[in-house]
Amino acid sequence: MIIRTSELASAQEKLNDLTKQKAEILKSYSPGSLLHKLQESMDKTDEESETLHQQLLDKEIDLATFVQRYKKLRVVYHKRALTHLAAKTSVVG
Questions:
Q1: Helix or strand holding residue 34 (H, E)
Q2: pTM of the shown model
Q3: Which family does it belong to (predicted)?
């Protein structure tokens, strides 16, 4: 079967586009990228717990509500921190 030059060029262009998409997707799931995302989520959770603490100090929430929400946030934070530490120490290269 004879492949037309225009068909080959079109197919080659599509292949190049798909190769670029694949590279971008793989980049976003690289160990370094995942560690960075995990660090960002840790920082966000830490900020949320600090905001909650400030609300308690400003008497915007009662102690029982604070304890319940703060405990949940800190549990999430520490789980992420332990996961981050384990991943960071096990990543080779």
A1: helix 31-57
A2: 0.73
A3: Belongs to the VPS37 family.
